[in-house]
Q: What sequence folds into this?
């Protein structure tokens, strides 16, 4: 999911890490300092359009490396969330670094997430612009509920519950959609979908160039 550039990510305000409050957190998550930049898949590639597989092995070096790579790739691509199939890995994992509407920063990862939304009587839909790192350069209004809960596990298999409101709730829904094999384009009318695809055709090379420049300019510990 693309970050909202009109709301810069603060480092000196309230932070919730893996759903729990912490006193402070660095601008660049430590995982990103260990990760490698991966290519972001784009809409139309098969891996984005089929459900991802459950993770069955926790506490492994491979799972930790995947999470690290997701964090760094998300940072380079200027994202607020990134799912594993967006770097070509069809496993049910996503990471996030996203502000909610109260400017609380939420940072973390979740494995094998299950999305829970309010019931119809308690549900409030909000239309807001939404972008996707796999639909580069496009943004469209998408209706989403203003509250969401995701239950799953951390990299070591410990249970997690992450709750979101506002834009962070949108992020949780967006990334959960990815793991089910959907992009936000699937929620648009035919006309709006064509508009989004026109936007990405016009802007994708500019987006790719900016990502390449950010990757080349990484200030990494020990580099």
A:
């Amino acid at each position: 999911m693309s970050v909202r550039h009109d709301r810069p990510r603060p480092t000196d305000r309230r932070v919730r890490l893996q759903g729990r409050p912490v006193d402070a957190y660095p601008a660049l998550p430590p995982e990103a300092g260990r990760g490698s930049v991966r290519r972001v898949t784009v809409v139309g590639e098969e891996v984005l359009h089929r459900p991802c597989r459950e993770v069955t092995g926790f506490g492994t070096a491979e799972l930790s490396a995947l999470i690290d790579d997701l964090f760094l790739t998300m940072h380079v691509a200027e994202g607020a969330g990134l799912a594993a199939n967006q770097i070509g890995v069809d496993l049910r994992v996503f990471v996030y670094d996203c502000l909610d509407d109260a400017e609380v920063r939420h940072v973390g990862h979740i494995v094998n997430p299950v999305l829970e939304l309010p019931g119809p009587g308690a549900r409030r839909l909000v239309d807001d612009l939404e972008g996707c790192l796999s639909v580069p350069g496009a943004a469209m209004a998408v209706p989403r509920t203003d509250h969401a809960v995701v239950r799953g596990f951390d990299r070591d298999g410990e249970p997690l519950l992450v709750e979101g409101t506002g834009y962070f709730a949108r992020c949780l829904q967006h990334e959960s959609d990815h793991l089910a094999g959907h992009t936000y384009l699937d929620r648009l009318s035919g006309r709006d979908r064509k508009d989004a695809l026109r936007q990405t055709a016009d802007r994708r090379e500019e987006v790719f160039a900016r990502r390449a420049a950010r990757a080349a300019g990484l200030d990494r510990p020990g580099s």
User: Anything to note?
Assistant: The chain is about 30% helix and 25% strand. The helical segments are 30-34, 61-76, 166-179, 190-216. The chain has one domain: 15-216. The CA atoms of residues 197 and 203 lie 10 Å apart.
